[in-house]
Specification:
By secondary structure, this protein is of the alpha+beta class. It has 23 helices and 30 strands. The protein folds into 4 domains: about 35 residues; about 170 residues, Penicillin-binding protein 2a (Domain 2); about 350 residues, Beta-lactamase; about 110 residues, Trypsin Inhibitor V, Chain A. Strand 13 and strand 14 form a beta hairpin. The chain is flat.
Length: about 700
Amino acid sequence: MNSVNAYDPIRWRAGLISAIFAFAFVVILGRLFWVQVLDNGKYRDAARKQYESKVELRAERGSLFDRNNREVVGMIRTTSFAADPEMVKHPETIAQLISTATGIATDVLLQKIRQPGKRFVWLARGVNTSLFPDLENLRDPGLIRVTEPKRNFLYGPVCAQLIGVTDLDNNGLTGLELQYNNILRGQSGFVVMQRDGKGRLRSGVNPERSSPQNGHSLELTIDIEFQRIAEKELERGVRESGAVSGTVIALIPSTGEVLAMASIPTYNPMRLDLASNDAIRIRAITDQYEPGSTMKAITAAALIDEGVLKPTDQVDGLGGAVHVGPYVIRDDHPLNKTTFQVALEQSSNVVFATSALRLDSRKYYKYVRDFGFGIPTGIDLRGEVRGVLRKPNQFKEGTQSYMAHGYGLSCTALQMVNAYAAIANGGVMMEPHCVREIRNSSGGRNTVLEPQTIRRVVSAATADAVIKMLVGVVENGTGKLAAIPGLAIAGKTGTSKQLVEGSYDQKQAYTATFVGFYPADNPQVAMIVLLDKPQTSIYGGTVAAPIFKRIVQKTMTMVKLGDSERTTIMNMMKADSVRVPELRGMPLATADTILSMNGLLLTTSSEYGMIGTQKPLAGTMVERGSSVEVNTVKHKGEYVPNVIGLTLRRAVSILHDAGFQVKIRGSGLVTGQEQKADTCILTAKRDQAQ
């Protein structure tokens, strides 16, 4: 019995061990069942991540076309560069070549490449390596290349603010790129790649793949050539007037389609790093101003529509001054008894301040509101402000009188030109828009964005009466510098003081505008030109109206005009051209005087000396107001002036001033020039026509 009991502990231990092993086996079996059956998907995915990688297939962003099907913005393939700092062998070479291609400082690139503990750092995105073959051919084990699509602006900076820009991942940031981002960007796809033992990616057999869906394209209402001309003429107007900035908007009154929307200063969308927020913003919808005398057409429409006044009715200008509460409203062109028509032509503040009081304040407010002031226009752009318009219960003494000639309320340039477009469209206001059609990238049906009517503001008869009054402004009044013989233009000038730090007393702080439409009998284009703080003259009729005129002249082939109107404008353009005079051999002061007499400008980096070269050359036909660039001979032997085509006397004078001896063969005009050391040999021949 004792012997049997001696084995009991052994059996007990063996049983315990067996039970432990059995329990462990059950646990392991259960765990295996959990992993292989219940949690199968999780671990299968984890395993796949070890040898598979999902690579994004980026969708192609849609293109932008103008109204004439010219591609304005598309896509190009670029290369983005990254580095594995632990693998880079030639950091200085990489930094130098990328710096040359992008403008990024070499020190900045080297700092990125030499970051400790990093295995991936971006160096530059969206580089067009076709322009830099050395960078394209660079080989380094630590240099990583990624092919990426990038926006390509086919017209450079033209229309940059309206079109907008995208970020490095091609998401819209501003302008139409932002407004229509979901339509343009498309949907990216992917492909599953196999990873080998060294971590390199390769394509497998029948890899899992989801094709990208490219973004849709847009057909804009913009005419890119009209836009280009508007920007060029606006830039010239801002420069010549010394203005801080300028804005031009042109739209079609019958549809609300925007033909052009330009602001100066602007920027280059290909170099967004150099652009300021001031240059990027769309001033046409973000900047508010007190409209001044351009508001008088709105007041006139309200008075005529209510039957209070007719263009031929007598009004009193009170000698050019009237007291309104504690203030005095004055006229630049004082009037006494006259017609309502003449009061608008001469832009009488007094007449409009007193006449507006004949309307009930609520009724006047409704007209101003219906013309679109104090409410957004609804244009398909983000960032539009609504302006400021007081409600009738907020009117104080003099509010209505000041509103009647453009003070005490504020608007955007777009609101003002759209109000005039409503008059041009027979009293019916349209919603302004920048996109005509969405083009389906997958071959489906395109979506046409139809013009939208907002409301009827005034009757057709009222609109017709106001149009005739505005034609009188251009033909007989303050808008004469916008007039083009043979083409009826309806428009109004505006000159408004700016409220600066609570005061209207700051000198040269004015907004100068001209807004109108043409042809007046069948309006095709409504346009506004606005200059902020012009310095050479504060008056819209002096600085803004000529810009309007030049744009009309240069875009007339893009607008539906009659043959006689088109011929007249062409003749006017020829009459507005001038032949560049010969300036070589003249002192700077003399050349400046001669150019001024011909309506041309002198540009030079020189301060003294005799003119040796000029561009354009003498005899070239250019538009009046253009610049002629000259260089002077400052130091003897500096360079040999080209004197071919000059008279011998002038040629010898120029060459002597330049420090050269002269030998002459023949007489008359110089036809040949040969240089031997410090001697110029001139061949001259008398012109038989002389």
